[in-house]
Amino acid sequence: QVQLVESGGGLVQPGGSLRLSCAVSRSIVSIYAMGWYRQAPGKKRELVAGLTSAGTTNYADSVKGRFTFSRDNAKNTVYLQMNSLKPEDTAVYYCKIGFGGLQYWGQGTQVTVSS
Prior knowledge:
Helix content: under 10%
Number of helices: 0
Largest sheet: 7 strands, mixed
Shape: globular
Order of helices and strands: EEEEEEEEEEE
């Protein structure tokens, strides 16, 4: 069973930054299906940043230029650096990986952007 554990969420003022981490319980060296999603209250879960099979990253239009996806294969961890945060970024953020025909999700971490 693969486990994903997100961390790094919290309360931040508008314009601030947070870095989310997602620790994976197995090697991610060969995994290319991964991404960060978010779900705000009353809304559907949406893709924030997703790694493509070509190794590039797709970002939601609402976060382009502000959020950055990265990975550290040695630590089996993926990250989401979030800068210039806005109140509309408030949501529970989830990481997801996919391999072997299955998808694995973390438990989520709450990000609240408010003054």
